[in-house]
Write a structure and sequence with these properties.
It is built from 14 helices and 14 strands. By secondary structure, it is of the alpha+beta class.
């Protein structure tokens, strides 16, 4: 009897929900796979009641998967084992066949090279800095190249050193990413918390977010002293910068936050993104499970800077979806009061943490959360509505909404 050859399943893509990894018209070679062997970041083809779709696995539960197109804001409905057709092994485009892992490796290798260049520039110019998040941290904690395109790299510096970094980035071919603020809003904005720069490398983008402080409130609005004091943000930034440590990745030294400060920062970062983003939770879960966090330090910093209300939901969501082993004493110490727990339960813990939001909707939700979760009493928080930047932002939201609602 002749040898049995298993021919892979072949399908054609339609649409750009997985752009830039998959393009409309690509030919996909699939392989059947058991549910227990599927991992987060696998690209699978599944079927629902009316059609087939090929998307990335962003979360794996005990009995189902959550998938999402890289170019989509919303996730798909739950994918059960019976719906899975197979996972993508290879892609054929214009006669060429490639494995998605080859593209991931290419992108992360180019990205890492650019990161090393900017790191060396920071060191050569004796610029105090910290890599807050990005590829170096992924490589250090995950011990492997990412199985997806990496979006950006966040670097914290002192604002006075920004001209040197800006000069280097522009000389290296990076362009400043323009924000969407009208000129009038820019004039009344009383601080800049970050700036972003991007560069196209053979069709793949490299992005650097240069931070001037620990960003977790609103980047489009300046100081929000009636909700959370800028003085506290400055002190937290200084404390995080002071407690940094050095890690080695591929023979290169990188300055990053201590493990405890990093966990706090990443939770604040999730608050900044309205507690949405599976890969953000996945990364914190990985850090906690593979290290020994100093929960005493975490508790002290959270309480010292009155961050309890901002980070508590993150830890609860981690326990709910990822079974992350969060220290019980710490949770007890940072637990908000009953009134805020009620708000968190009904306005945060019931949201779809895997979806992403449109910028305007995300901004509105973030301001609302900052207002309700602010540690200040209500009579002080009300004063924020006399802030000219907040008033202008509210005006813009209503103006755009009114403009969109007008008939053509």
């Amino acid at each position: 009897m002749g040898k049995i050859i298993k021919i892979p399943m072949v399908i054609k893509t339609f649409g750009n929900s997985m752009h830039p990894l998959l393009l409309d018209g690509d030919i996909l070679y699939l392989k059947k796979i058991n549910f227990q062997n599927i991992k987060v970041n696998d690209i699978i083809t599944a079927k629902n009641s009316s059609s087939y779709f090929t998307h990335r696995v962003i979360y794996k539960g005990n009995r189902y998967l959550i998938t999402k197109g890289d170019n989509n804001a919303a996730t798909d409905s739950k994918v059960y084992p019976k719906n899975i057709v197979g996972n993508v092994q290879n892609v054929k485009r214009e006669g060429n066949i490639f494995n998605p892992n080859q593209l991931y490796l290419l992108q992360s290798s180019m990205y890492f090279g650019e990161i090393v260049k900017i790191k060396n520039t920071l060191e050569d110019n004796k610029i105090e800095h910290v890599f807050l998040k990005g590829l170096p941290l992924h490589l250090y904690f995950e011990k492997t190249h990412p199985k997806r395109f990496y979006a950006d790299c966040d670097i914290l510096i002192n604002p006075k050193d920004f001209p040197k970094i800006k000069k280097f980035l522009k000389k290296s071919g990076y362009l400043k990413i323009k924000d969407s603020l009208p000129n009038k809003h820019k004039k009344i904005k009383n601080k800049e918390s970050e700036m972003s720069f991007a560069k196209n490398l053979n069709g793949l983008y490299v992005v650097f977010d240069i931070h001037f402080e620990i960003v977790f409130l609103m980047t489009k609005v300046g100081e929000l002293n009636f909700l959370y004091p800028q003085k506290q943000v400055n002190l937290l930034t200084k404390e995080f910068m002071t407690g940094k440590r050095i890690i080695k990745v591929f023979g290169e030294n990188f300055q990053i936050l201590s493990e405890s400060d990093l966990i706090i920062y990443l939770c604040l970062h999730l608050f900044h993104h309205n507690f949405k983003g599976a890969y953000r939770y996945d990364f914190i879960d990985k850090i906690i499970k593979t290290s020994t966090p100093d929960y005493k330090r975490i508790t002290e910093v959270i309480k010292k800077y009155h961050l309890q209300n901002f980070v508590y939901p993150c830890f609860i969501i981690l326990k709910k979806y990822y079974k992350t082993p969060i220290n019980k004493n710490m949770l007890k110490e940072i637990k908000p009061n009953k009134r805020l727990l009620y708000y968190i339960k009904n306005n945060i813990l019931d949201i779809d943490v895997f979806d992403e939001e449109e910028r305007v909707d995300g901004g509105k939700r973030r301001f609302k959360m900052i207002f309700f979760l602010s540690p200040y009493p209500i009579y002080r928080k009300i004063l924020i509505f006399f802030n000219k930047e907040v008033l202008y932002s509210i005006f813009l939201v209503f103006y755009r909404k009114l403009k969109l609602s007008k008939p053509f």
